[in-house]
Amino acid sequence: LQAELAVPILLGEQLLGVFDVASRKPFLDDDLKAIQIIADQLAVAIDHAYLFADTQRALEETRLLYRTSQRISVAIDVDDVVQAYLEQVAVRGRYACNIALYEFDDTGRRSAVIVRGRWTPTDGLQCPLMIQVPNVRDALDPLLDVGQTIAIRDVHTDARVPEVLRQMQARDGRPALTLIPLMARGRRIGLVILSYPGVHEWPEANLHAYQITAAQLATAIDNRQQIALIARHNQQIAVWEE
Question: 3-state secondary structure string, 154-189?
Answer without folding.
Answer: CCCCCCCCCHHHHHHHHHHCCCEEEEEEEEECCEEE
